[in-house]
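hi! just following up on the protien thing from before. the input was this:
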Amino acid sequence: MANPPISRAELEKLTEEVCHAVYRGVQKYEHDKTLQWNTSVINAVLSRLISHTSTDDKPSPYKFVVTSTIVQNIMPIKTQSAGTSTAIGAEDGAGPDGSNMAGVKASGGKRGMHSASGAYWNKEKDGSWNYKFDGEEVREFDVVITVIWVATSP
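and the predicted 3d structure came back as:
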């Protein structure tokens, strides 16, 4: 696998800084804002990558692709009866497909996610890197950032 255009430590640092700036003060998953959040993260990471790899007289020797995926976490809520925990939206006992979920307790927490990609490229110069901005206990979501670089010169 090719080394990234900037050190992995610097790549992680700039991505983390961007995520902290975009998601500062955000705690709840709001679907209506996901496009804005993703666009802000992608544009800021791209901008920083380009500025780190180019000079005033020479453009970056790489093309970049940045993706951002927001993964909503299942947040448990307390119901009034006996303090049991059910998933948000499941208070009526019906599952998303209308099935009877009465008596089923949601565990809350993380949702499963699997992502994969493949590429045909120069393994000496091109590559990809992934970063997870963990919502921890602060946000109702996690963010997965992927950076792909392709050298423009042979």
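Residues 135 and 142 are 5 Å apart (CA to CA).
Helices lie at 8-22, 34-53.
cheers
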